Known about the structure:
This protein is of the alpha+beta class. The chain contains 5 helices and 11 strands, in the order βααβββββαβααββββ. This is Putative acyl-ACP thioesterase superfamily.
Amino acid sequence: MDVWKESYPVGFTAVDESEGLTLAAAFDYFQEAARRHAEVLGVGQEPMVQAGQGWVLSRISVLVERRPRQGELITVSTWPRGWEKLFALRDFDIRDESDKPIVRARSCWLIVNIEKRRPLRPQATMEKLPLNEGRDALPGGGVGLAPLENLLKAGDRVAAYSDIDYNGHVNNARYVQWVQDIADPTALVQAKTLRLDINYLSEVKIHEPIELWTEPLPAESDAVYTLGVEGRRNGGAVFRAELRIKD
Length: 247
């Protein structure tokens, strides 16, 4: 199956008070669809662990062009998109009932040797999977984010039980919730179009304290709100994110 698709209505817990889909909920949809597709393709958790390997999400960019509403029927699709250097690429989109893409994303994954905790070249795995050439959800997505220079401490989080997934570390979507919680809630609720780029730099385990540092991004003519976020543990960055909300 080259492209995995699953359809369902947007649930009550996936929206905010505007009744529009949240970024964190979109991440939840994406990671579940990616997991199921990987299992169908024979590169899910069990066969990868048996081979001494694992998938690690390194970067993802998500562009929300329209936020689907509570109860709206959507179709979430995902597909492998080859590789670039050490990154295995996987794309996503969410389409409305007219088959129009309203959310688009590109993710970059590392395939790591579990014992040595080192990345492997992705070709051996990705060559066996559909390449889906020409099917690009978000060309140029999955960007590397440079450190920001004028960050100020804005808050603290401690990784708690509900943040931890079956891998024993903070789940990818939880970082997005942390970004949402440190951002301006009014801007998020009123957002029509938004983009989030996030880089995962180091895993975070339960009870570890994380400092959240923020800085407005350089002004953009069509942006009504921007925010750069860096999570730090003992002074070192564990993730970086850039949020842009446009009118």
